[in-house]
Specification:
The chain is built from 30 helices and six strands. With 573 residues, the protein is mostly helical. Helix 5 runs antiparallel to helix 6, helix 9 runs antiparallel to helix 10 and helix 19 packs parallel to helix 21. It is elongated and about 95 Å long. The structure holds zinc ion (2 copies).
Length: 573
């Protein structure tokens, strides 16, 4: 066998494999000798081999043993057609040879790739019957299938039932929960890892930090950071990158900078993450400084870097810098994609250079995304350009975009021009179509507990106090000259409908809760899934002054830091 191994090492083409195959047949060893299993395995999974020929070898075996089946199923599971592995597994069940844990594991890997959830359950039932329950690797692969198929509860249940787990198991579930929009559960599981004294590895930690980023859970993120210092995992590059992302997304850009500056080795991801972080926080010139530093350090920017730098220009109104970076990019070997074009359209639109933005959209070499026309429409609203707004809105209709934001914007463009008939017409059209609405929600973390609010939420246990606080806010902001209603419709940038005006937006509920549940000191940190609306923006500026509290809202696009009556975005978002 050792000899065969060394011969296989030297095989560099399918011809070699065929020669070896012929040799094993002529020596009469093919039907009985384990060397054919070796050959089959090599042909099935190595880069030199090929699956059709492996199937050919397999067909000639009169009595395949389990390892022969495994060799073929494994190869198929990794191939371009993982479904065939499942067919093969099914065929095997009609033969006398029983699958072993390896067979099940290869078949489950195929399930994970094609999201064959039903088949995975069958295999699960089968290996329970065969008594492989205690096989940790098998269970972990199964958890992976459940996670990928989106059955996170099933995955969790399986996890709880496992008599033994290794780290890979925790990883599969923690990253699965974090990526599957279940960040709260991911964090709870991470805490359990520590309680059960399982040492997490970098994948687990990255999963947990990503959960913190999603939730804006700064104190939890800081706790993980201090754990990493104790566990001497602080120098791991992937972990550091996740820390930068976590600090930036949880509102502490200084925390992110500190991690970034302390890193001994940085990867492209480190640079990209910090530039994007600074961009989101409206620190455009700092972001560009790091972008230049990166060039001086000889790190070649990629599409993400350029996008981050352009976002930085966009959020800080750095028009000329943005155009310069974009032109540099066009001249480099990194080609701009639709997002880069989107950024440049936005930069021009916000600066009131509407015609130029229009020319850019029309010159894009790929199909323009509706988002580009939407951003032009938004700019037309700001600068009162009815003609161009109508053209953008026609384009959106042509493209089949049916977003409520488009209608709201268009009706606001007409309203600003006092064309009330047109306002009415747009509103009617909006009602007659089934316009898509994205439900808004916000998170706030207080004393390590995450609270989630939806628009008009009454389900929180302190709901009564929250609404009491909102009444108080309403009275006090009026005292500062706040005018609700009509003025605000014009400010509404559109993702949430006008009717929502009468209902409190989720971010207002979260901020009100923040005000009654914490005193002074730390800023109130809120995360919102959509863009913050114009009215909430006005109110938060006033609240920051009236109550002397800093408020930070991370919305879909960027960070807003409200302090002493103004916002870090300079009302520019
Ligand atoms: Zn609002
Ligand atoms: Zn703002």
């Amino acid at each position: 066998m050792a000899l065969l191994d060394s011969i296989l090492q030297k095989c560099t083409s399918i011809t070699h494999i065929k020669q070896l195959h012929a040799h094993i047949i002529t020596t009469g060893l093919f039907q009985i000798h384990p060397s054919r299993t070796k050959l089959l395995e090599f042909c099935s999974i190595s880069a030199v081999g090929n699956l059709d020929y492996a199937a050919e070898i397999f067909r000639r075996i009169q009595n395949p043993v389990t390892n022969d089946w495994n060799a073929l199923i494994r190869g198929l599971a990794q191939s371009e057609q993982p479904k065939k592995a499942l067919q093969c597994y099914l065929t095997m069940s009609r033969w006398p040879q029983k699958p072993d844990p390896l067979t099940c594991s290869f078949a489950l890997k195929a399930c994970a790739r094609v999201l064959a959830f039903f088949e995975a359950k069958e295999i699960h039932a089968q290996f329970q019957k065969l008594g492989f329950d205690s096989d940790v690797r098998l269970q972990t692969t199964l958890i992976d299938v459940y996670v990928k198929s989106g059955d996170l509860d099933g995955a969790h249940q399986l996890f709880d039932e496992m008599p033994l787990r290794d780290i890979a198991t925790w990883n599969a579930l923690i990253s699965g929960l974090a990526q599957g929009s279940r960040p709260k559960d991911a964090l709870a599981l991470f805490r359990r890892t520590l309680r059960e004294r399982v040492k997490p590895n970098d994948i687990t930690v990255v999963g947990a930090l990503s959960a913190c980023s999603q939730l804006g859970a700064l104190s939890e993120g800081k706790f993980i950071h201090s754990y990493l210092k104790d566990a001497a995992m602080e120098s791991n590059v992937r972990v550091c990158n996740a820390l930068i992302d976590m600090y930036a997304k949880c509102g502490s850009i200084n925390g992110a900078l500190e991690v970034f500056h302390n890193m001994v080795t940085r990867t492209l991801v480190s640079w990209n993450t910090i530039i994007m972080g600074l961009a989101m926080h409206g620190r455009g010139s700092d972001a560009l400084e790091i972008f230049d530093q990166m060039g001086r350090a000889g790190v070649k920017p990629d599409q993400v870097t350029y996008l981050s730098a352009l976002c930085a220009c966009n959020h800080s109104g750095l028009v000329e810098e943005g155009l310069r970076i974009f032109n540099n990019m066009v001249g480099s070997d990194v080609s701009p994609n639709i997002k880069h074009y989107g950024c440049i359209v936005d930069i021009l639109g916000r600066a009131g250079r509407l015609e130029e933005a229009y020319i850019v959209i029309n010159s894009i070499p790929m199909d323009p995304d509706p988002v580009l026309w939407q951003s032009l429409l938004g700019a037309c609203k700001t600068y009162g350009n009815v003609g161009l707004a109508e053209r953008a809105s026609e384009k959106l209709a042509e493209m089949g975009s049916n977003s409520c934001g488009d209608y709201v914007l268009m009706s606001n463009v007409y309203a600003a021009d006092q064309r009330w008939d047109d306002v009415g017409r747009v509103r009617e059209e909006m009602k007659s179509r089934d316009v898509r609405k994205v439900p808004g929600f916000s998170f706030i973390e207080l004393k390590g507990v995450i609270h989630k609010f939806v628009n008009g939420d009454h389900s929180h246990m302190n709901s009564k106090e929250i609404y009491g606080m909102l009444d108080e806010i309403r009275i006090r902001v009026k005292g500062l000259g706040y005018v609700p209603n009509t003025a605000f419709v014009l400010h509404d940038i559109g993702e949430e409908e006008k009717e929502n005006a009468l209902v409190y937006h989720s971010e207002k509920l979260a901020v009100a809760y923040g005000l009654i549940s914490s005193d002074g000191g730390d800023p109130i940190r809120v995360i919102k899934n959509l863009r913050i609306c114009g009215d909430c923006h006005v109110v938060f500026k006033m609240v920051s002054k009236i109550y002397g509290r800093e408020i930070m809202v991370r919305d879909r696009a960027r960070y807003h830091h409200f302090k002493d009556g103004s916002c870090s975005c300079g009302d520019f978002w």
